[in-house]
């Protein structure tokens, strides 16, 4: 009897890896994930600097075997990711009144005085090389620009006519870089 109980305890420990935050249904515990987001931002839901709304409780994310990584806010959202499983979500943030918009956002561009525009390095319909670099290696593929792009700006590209739109940074003539893949 004691041996069967010990085997049951051992099998539970193996089935639930350290750091996993699974709900009763085996998916990521969204309420606990939301509380981590609120703690990381030090702002409650629907308050300036905090998440815009509550995380959707219908969201079914596989339980991450390690703690979910909370990246710094970028482009008005807080990225959350589970590296071992490869899922990631972005939590929209409520803007802080009177705060300076982040560089590169449309609000920041509107706040700056007009300067003469540099000619685009990439034109809509141009073939481009889409690059992603990580940990000492680079992956690249062919894509088609969906809009004009200037050096240092963002541009939408598609790798396939039916594929999703990818947003990347214009590096040089015909070269677009994505932050991650």
From TrEMBL:
Task: Return the InterPro entries for the record.
Answer: SAF_FlgA
The record's listing under Pfam families reads: ChapFlgA (PF13144)
Q: Where is the Flagella basal body P-ring formation protein FlgA SAF domain?
A: 117-178
Q: Where is the signal peptide?
A: 1-22
Q: What keywords were assigned to this record? A: Cell projection, Cilium, Flagellum, Signal
The protein here is known as Flagella basal body P-ring formation protein FlgA
Q: What is the lineage of its organism?
A: Bacteria, Pseudomonadati, Pseudomonadota, Alphaproteobacteria, Sphingomonadales
